[in-house]
Structures are given as structure tokens and as C-alpha cells.
Automatic annotation (TrEMBL), chain A:
Name of the protein: Las1-domain-containing protein
Residue ranges of the region described as Disordered: 450-470
Annotated signal sequence range: none
InterPro entries registered for this protein in UniProt: Las1
Record Pfam families: Las1
Domain of life: Eukaryota
Species this chain originates from: Sparassis crispa
GO molecular function: endonuclease activity
Biological processes annotated in GO: maturation of 5.8S rRNA; maturation of LSU-rRNA
GO CC aspect terms: Las1 complex; preribosome, large subunit precursor
UniProtKB/TrEMBL annotation, chain B:
Stated name of the protein: Polynucleotide 5'-hydroxyl-kinase GRC3
UniProt KW keywords: ATP-binding, Kinase, Nucleotide-binding, Transferase
Ranges of biased composition (kind: Acidic residues): 94-112
Native source species: Sparassis crispa
UniProt key word Signal: no
Amino acid sequence: MRLPRRVPWESLSELDQVCSLIYADENDIDAKVQAVNRISAWRAITSLPHALESTLALLCAILDDSRRQGLPSLLSLRQSYATALIRLVNGLVDPLQVGAYARSIASIAAQLGLPAWLVELRHAATHEDLPSIDVLREAAREAMRWLLDNYFLPTLNPSAAAPSPKTVLRPLSPLLKQYKTLLKGTTRDASLLPTRKHEIAKVTRDIERWVAEAKVAANVSVDAIEWDIGAQDDSMEDGRERWALERLCDALLELGALVPVSKKKRTISGVPLAPAPANLAIWTPLLTNLQSLHPKLPAVLAVRIVSHLLSRSGPSQADVGADTVSLLPQDDAQMDTSYDRCLAGWANWLVDTCGAGAEEEEQEMLRRDDIVVSLITGLGPQREASKTDIMVAQDLLTALCAGHPHLERVAASLPPIADAPSNQWNSTDIDLMQQRLSAVLALARAPDAPSSSATGALGAQPPNITNPMEPVCTGLPPGWRLLSEKDGWRPSPIGVHVPRVPA
Amino acid sequence: MLSAVAARKARLQGPATTQPVAVIPTPTSPPAPSLTPVSEPRIVPKLQSKRKAAVQVEKPPSKKKKHAHTAESDRRTRYFEQPDVFKQQGDANLVDDDHADEDTDTSGDDMPVDGAQLNPQIIGTDQRKGATRRRAWSPSAPDSSDDEEDGVVEGNALPSLVPILAEHLRAVSHDAPSVLSTFKPAWEENIFRLSQSEVHDLSLPSYSEQTGTLLLLTAEETVTLLGTYSLTVLRGCISFAGVVLTPSRVSHRVFAPRSSPLPVIKCLALKVPLRDLSLPARLRTTATSMDAAVLLQELHTGVQGLGAVCRTFDGVFSPSRSQSNVSAFDLNLRGVHLVRHCTHDISVLVIPPSWETAMSPILQPAAQTDYSRRVYLVKGPQNSGKSVFARTLLNRLLTLYRRVAFLECDLGQSEFVPGGMVAVNVVDKPVFGPPFTHPSIPHSAHYIGAATPRNSPSHYLDSVQALIQTYNVHLQHAGLVDDTSQGVSSDEDRIVDLIPLVVNTMGWTKGLGADLSRRVEEITDPSDIFELGCRVPQRVWSYSPSEIRTYLLEPVPSTVLSHRYTPADNRTLSMLSYFYAVFPVKSDASALQNCTAMSWRTSLPLCAQPPYEVDWKSAFDRTFLTGAGTEDVVPTEIHRVLNGAIVAMVSCEPDTLDTETDDMTAAWSTSPPYKQDAAPPTPFGSSCAGLALVRSLSPVPASVLHLLTPLPPHALSRVRVLVKGELELPVWGMLDFRAGDGGEIAGVESGKVPYLRWGKGEGTGGDRRRVRRNLMRRGQM
């Protein structure tokens, strides 16, 4: 469930009103005073969006400037301009400092489309001589214009916002290749490790940085993401991170990364569905490192692999993994089952090693159950083990369920339907679906029974409390009166007044 | 910051072999030397040579450096090495040298479960630590949160490595989970259903009309229960939540949600004869061979409904999925669940041995004629267990004194009041449960209006000063003149005529916070100071240290819960719990009787609860705004600011408000009485009764406010002033839980609900400011 956010205005029309008070007539001081009063009041209600708070600070400085007759010195004016500008730039830039290391403010400002000279002015006003009043006035004008274009107009007219250009990320493959080459050396010959350590550390850091950059860039392409369940302030953050991780996983799934180019190295005979040890040795350090920064990585990677495996099952499912497929080399000669088998091995390994227990409640963690569910759903009822293209997915399902009696039961309860359903709708189809559904539900109900009955009993049972309103009515101080539905009062959202209707 | 950089360096340089800083809590000055329990050395299979050969780009950051700074925070961490990839996967071993060191260093962390002390040391610390899992560092989700400011990332949040091979972690957390209940229930052997009449015959003052379940325990047996229940000790002696309970007709209300450490009932072997209550005849013979008899009864308060109000805490009173999978023993009590094993989302209340040592001298029954001032101040950094210690101390003192006063100076996480205020409560019954389960009407309180005194330090100090005066003058010896205690308690063996004071301080111990804490210490003039989690003994005493006994205590080990529920979450829940609470209506106006909520009205959301209609012209003299920037609010906008606000209801002494001029009075006929840039009422001439939510205001010509407040009428009688601070109603409180996830509120669809915005706003800078304090420069790598 996504929580809404408290805003100080009743509706956007109130914000629109403030916007026109500020921008309609540049010389209308009274209107600006009204706007300052309104925003100051909003500020006392709840914390404001940064852009609005900056608008307030700039407006106050501009108003002071317009009424400056009689001021003994302009220093205070310069200071209030400078503070407003410094805080504007800092506040806009800070949310985009999402990595462990500081990015330069100039680069973030460029991403935001903030004029570069405002960034320079921020630096000068903070660390150097306080800029002249002329420069500051011009900067304030520029900043107000920027706020109108980048905050007020997009907020007030959500649909009118220009579509952002498609994000272009620099390719990750060279970095991965470099990493692989280094690790190949050190895994074969441990004595190389001391000399290569720094190089490995550097390339690992470069990859980390790539993810951080992708996360920032996700800013504009984030609309395409389905939001995860998340806390209010984290949801956007989650979406960005997920997007960046998906791009990372796409690069990892390319041939020559997690899946070696040489077919012989892809799998080891005898051990079904596990990455080859040499391969594992190369990638584990990087994955470990990335996972420490992005705990969701195993989950994203496993989901990516599964959706790739399922997308192989036929053109009808192209929509499931269209994104993935397009990123993979289309050369089918290379893409034989050993490629899929190797990926399935990774997925199996991921679930085995980093999968959280089934009881884990963290949303973002990799769960065996989730992967099994997506496999079963993706495979659909006509899972025919003979079909080679989905055989790998089928094998992965078996491997994942093995050793987990609960999951084995689920998988067994949904036997593949032998005869592929025709496109014709039969009345028996619904019965079949019903039957399969109840088979699964019967399994689910068994272990969950105690908890659901327990919570149900407590939740449904209204607490046995004598109506507390009755005694409260007596002894109220003058001017107080308890309302009830009899007075014409009815429930309404907090902040909406429902007057009493005199009887 | 330094530590983070150091860790980064260490990681890049490979295995570090620094020695951890040994931290041994040693009580200074008078009290007895601390117990130094022998920890069992952990047997750790190490494959050093193999590991060296493996590809090891990184090594867990040398947490030892961090150890010196925030040792208590990383007790939960456990690192595992990667597998030796040349061997088979299953061969990888957990590297536990870090942890093993810790075990020996931090004494008492792994307290061996030992025998017949009167020591409510709770089992299960060890495995619980294994079960906890450190969350990976992420800038969006700060690892530690600072009391000082929400949403600020602490400076020393350290990128930690969560090893990819969590397999072993799971193995550790799953194998042999520690047993929380050694009690093996068997009907008609050691557990009995009591009928209504059998309970009635016990002549308990409360819950006598309910059936119950009687447990017979032998010494050392433990029972851990989840849920809400009433607990009555009939025979023998048990330790519970750090307190020793002896037979009494008093039933204790216990709230044990999963969101806080669970208290454990432990039977004690006591040879001293106690005044046992007579059990039903059919049980007497069975009971003689047992050491204690405990009566459990259902407790229905509606508190579970708060989980529906604030979904963060959904279902905390019932077992989580992982526990409900284990077939549970049915106690025949609704809402009570027996917890046998420790799982990853449960933690139990641990009273470290150094706490025991520190508390024992002050609990010696003093001579009846000793009327010296007893003020116990509890201090320490955030998350060190201050409030748990303060609550335990309070409960312990209540076994010796009939009443204990509790001064809350922590604005963020208050024990009895909803936050944003400093308050004195007079408590006469031990409290078992987290703060949100016992919201109370304070004896005396002053509203600060924010979760931190950052913006109004002097008002905060004045408020503490005023409350201490109240305690010194009105409370300390109030038992002497309070006639209610005389008649009631002829068999009262507790001290009646002195009311000691427990002071809980805030966790903000850096910068201005340190200065404020020092001033609070001076103002309260404690007789004993309990300092938790102090590593560097740097104190500036401005008074003679010899008069104050100071105890340095080890911090409580951080639990999995502090990750799951942030201080902000707990604050939200406390606030909502307060507004949904139902306070008893007092029959007599005895100021010393504590008024704690007995139930919660959670069947209706706040937006559907009938409000009070208040005419501000006749009911209120003034309204004030406090908080940074509120002095800029002009009178024409006050209407807007008050709508939907949380206000404190304050009563002022006559003549403490400045007189209003005629033109102000004229203006107040059309808007609430407000004067721009006015200082809030002085704490020395006012008192805060409680909070109210201004759910709406009438359009301008009328002078009507609709208020929601849980306060009973007797508490409202003197309220003439409203103060709005920085506290806001949590968004959860504005929603309508009846509508499910649809977001409909009182029949209004989500897009049209005023003052709320769903979804992400467009436009740059449309979000609230985020502050990061752990940003590193490239050069620091």
C-alpha cells in the first residue's frame, strides 16, 4: 500500500493561485506579499517541497529589495539573496547524491538543467567573497524563472510536461569484460592476486559507480517502472534502484558475462543446474560486493533470468520478456540450450545461496517461493517436458522444488495438462481451472489455518468495550459539545468541515 | 565519517588483523563490582589456509574501528566468509573470529544460562544475535536514525558487506533456535482451565468475571507469551520483565507485541514463605509439588486494532507467519500465544547483569524515616536501552514504593505521553508493554511541540525546571498528605510517604544535545545517575561528584526490531495510540491517581469519529504557534494553519497571558484569537492537559472548531489555550482503514481528498529536502 503525502494546500488550485500571485505581474508588490504570507502559513502546516521553500526565501529577499529605502546597508540584503540561492542549489542537488561518493554539483546541476552560473554563484557565495548585489539580483530573477519552468508549471499541469528524452547509459560490457579478464588470471594463479588487487578493486568500484549513475539517470525513465510496495519516501528510491539493477542484470546476462562464450565452460556434467566452479569463482566476488550495496540484486537477477527462460517458450510470450530478449544477441546458433542451462544454474544458485527463508517478510528479498510461483505461472498449464525450448525452465522448477516438500506438493498438485487446450472455449475449461485452483488453495490453507483464524478472531471481534462516549458527554466545560450523527454530522476527511444542522 | 573511510580502506587492503577494543562495563564508585560472566568460547571451524588461497577481493570492513565508536550497534552483525570456490560449495565455513572476539570482550553479552539466582536473565541472547541480520547500507534507507532529526543519515553509517552466501546465516538462525518456553504444557497436569466461579472465588479485584488458565511452574521453567493478557501470581515467585512478582490479588495487564522484546515469565525457586493465595480445591494437591501458580486471563482492549490503523504494525499481537507454521499449543485464551522458540523476528527482553548490579543497592528497603530525595536519572545515547532500563527501574521501584514519579525528558519517544512534551506521571502499577500500550494523562506536562528540543532549547529547559519544581514541592512527599492511600492499604507493605522520581533523558547526546543533557542533569539534581553505553568517560561535573552515585551500564544489545521499526515508526504509533485511546473517567479528582488508557476505540477511523464542537469565542482565550518560522504566520492565515493541526490544550494561571488590545479583540471575533510572533505560555504558569486534533474549522463568520481528543471531560475543564507546534498528525491517522487499499476516505475517492496527494509529484524540487551526512569524497577512497 502506498501512502499518500500530506500537502498544505486543499487542492492544486490553491497552488495555482499562489503561482499567479508571484508570476502574473513582476511589479505587483502586494500580490507578492500575499504569496509570502500564504507560503509562510503552509510552512507552519507541514514541511514544504524544497522548491516552494526556496521560492519563499527568494521572494522575501526580492520584497526586501523592493522596499529597501532607508536600509542602512545593503549587506543584509546581499546576505539574504545569497542564502536563498545557496539553499536553493543545495536542496536541489542533495537528493541526487544517491551514491556513496559525492558527485560534482556541476554535473548534477547539468542533469537538472540548472544554469551553471548559479552553481558557480553558490560556490562563490559560500567560500569566496559575497557576490555583488547586481549579480545576486540577476541570479534571483533567473532562479525564479527556473522554478516557474521546472517546478510550478510541471506540478500544476502534469500532462503538459514534456516527455523526457530516453536515458542513454554508457555501455557496461567493457567494464565487465575487464573484470572478467582480471579475475580469470587471479583465479587460475593465486600468486597474481597481490599485484592485481588494486586493479580489481578499481574495476569493481567502476561497476559500482556505473550502477550509481544508472540509478540517477533512472530519474527520467522511472515512469516505466511498476512501483514496488515501499515506504513513502523510499518508493521512488526503490524504483530507481530496481531500474538500475535491471540494466545491470541485462548486461550480466549477455553472452560472455555470467555465461561464458565457450560452451564447454558453461556447465559441468553430472551436477545439474549449478554454475561451473571456475565461473562461480570469477563472479562471486563482484556479486557479493554489489549485493552489499544493493540487497535487492539477487532477487532482480533471478527474476530477470526466469523471465528470460520463460520468454524462450514461444513467440506468444514475447511480451513477458521483450525487454530482455532485445538486449540479448539474437544469434540463435549461439543460443542453444547450454546458454539457458547455464543461466538456470545461476538462478538455482542464487536462490540456494541468497534466498531468504520463506518466512522472510522483507519485500525486496529473493524468495524461493516467488521464483517458483513465477515459473509455474509462466509455464502455464501446458508444460510439456518434451518441448526443448522450455525444458530448461521446467528443469529449474524441479531443481528449486527439490528438497522443499511444501513446494514439491504444490508443483505436483498442478500436473501438466496433456492435451493442449484448443483456442475454442469449452464449458469444461472453467471446471478444470476451478479444480486446479482449489487444489492449490487446499495446500495453502493447511499451514495458514492457525494464523488466519487467530487474526480473524481478533480482527472481526470488536473489542468488548462499553460505549465510552456516554459518560464523556457529561461535565464538559462551556463552549464544548459532543457531536453525533443526530446533529447532522457525518464522517468526512480530516480538514473538511461538516457543520451541525440545528434540529 | 572517519570510520567509514577507514573501513573502506581496510576493505580494499584485504584482511585486517586489528584487535577489537575491549569494552568492559564497570560500575564506578560505590556499587559492587560488576559480574563478569564467563562466556563460552565459540568453537569455530576455521579453514584459514584454504581461505587465503581463495579469491578474496574484499574482506568484511574492519568493524573493529567502528567498534570503538558505536560498539553497541554492531553487536548484531555477523560476517561470513565466501566459500572456497575450489572446494565444494558446502565446505565454506563461517568465519567468526570477529564475533568470537566480541563475545569475550563484551562481558555479559552471552550470559550463560545459569542457575538459581534471583536474576531474571533471559535466555536466548546468543541465537537471537545469530538470527539478526544487518541490513546492507543504502543511502535511501539510513541504517541508523538519529533522534535529532528524522531522515538524516548518520555520519557513521558504514557500507557493510552482506555476504552473498547467506546460506550459512540461515543455517545459524535455524539450527536449534533457543527455547523461549521450557514449560511443557499438559492439560490437567500443569495447566488447568479455571471456570468463572473458580476465578470468582479467588476474589481478585479485576477481571474476576472471566475464565482463566492456570499454569503450575517448577523452578527455572520459562514461559514466553505473545499477545495481550492479564497475569496474576497466585503462588510462589516469578521473575517477569526484570521484576520479581510475588503472590498478590493484583492482576497485571501485559502487552507483548512482536514489535518490542517479549517479556519472559520465569519461575524462581524461593524458600521464603510467601502469602500464597488459596487455589481451587481440586488443584491444591497438584500445586504443592510445584513452585509457582500463575493465572492467565484474556485481556481485550482493542489495542490490536492499531495494527489496522498503522499498517506498519499490522498483526504485531499475533504470531508471524514463521511462528504460526509451528503448531502452537492452544492455551484456551484468545489473543495469547505461547512462543516456544526464538525466531528471527522475535526478540526477548534481556536485562544485562550490570543492570542488575546497579539496581540492587537502590532497592534495599531504606529506613522508614529516611526522607532524603531520591531522583534516579537515566541517560545514554540513542538505542542504548534507556527507556527499557527506565521502565524496568520504575517497575522495580514499584515493588518497594507505593507510587513512583516518572519525568519524561525525551520528546521523541516518550513512555507515557504521546511525544512533543515533557511530562511527569505518577505511576502506581508496574507497566508491562511498550510505550504505545500505556498512554496516560500526565500529572503535569509542558508542550514543546516537536520531537526534539532543537528549535526551542530554552523553553525545553524551562519546562524541565518547572516540572522539577512541581515534583519537589507537590509530589515528593505527597504520599504523606494523600488520604486515599491510608485507608485502602492497611496491608500495604510498600513505602507510601516518599515518592521517588525516575528521569528519562533524551538520546541526543551530541552537540547542543550534550549541552542540554548536562543542563537537565543540573536541573534535576539526581541522587543516582545510570549511564548506558558510555564508552568515553568524559563528563564535566559542575557540582561535587561525590554526592551523586553514577553507574556505568552496558547498553542493551541492539535487536532485529530496531531495524524493522524506526524511532519515527514508534513515534507515529504512539501518537495514533493516544488519539484512539479511551481514558477512564475519574470518579474522584485525586491528583495522584494515574490515569492510563484502558482500551482503544479502533472500530472507527479518526475521520469517522464524532468530534467535539467547540466555540472558540467562549472556550479559548488564545492560540499560539511554536516552531521555526511560525512567527511569519499572519493573523489572516491562522485559520488555514489550524485546520488539521495537532494542538496542545494548555491551561494557564490567571494573568500569565499578556493583555490583549482592543483592536486584537475586534479581530478575534472573526478568527481564532491569535497574535503574530507571540512566545508560548511560560511553563512556570501553565500546564498542558493533552493533545487534540483540529479536525476542521467552520468557514469564517462562525467560530466553531471540531476537535478530536481522547481526554475525559475532567481533564478539559481548565483548558483555555491552544498551542500548535511542529508535530503533525501521521498520514496513517488521516486515512480510512475501512476502505482497504483503495484509498477512499469517508466516502471521498482518493484523488479528491483534500490535503493529501497520492503518487509522485511532477516538477523538480517537488520533494521534501533530504539531508545526507555520510557522503564521501572520491579522495577519501
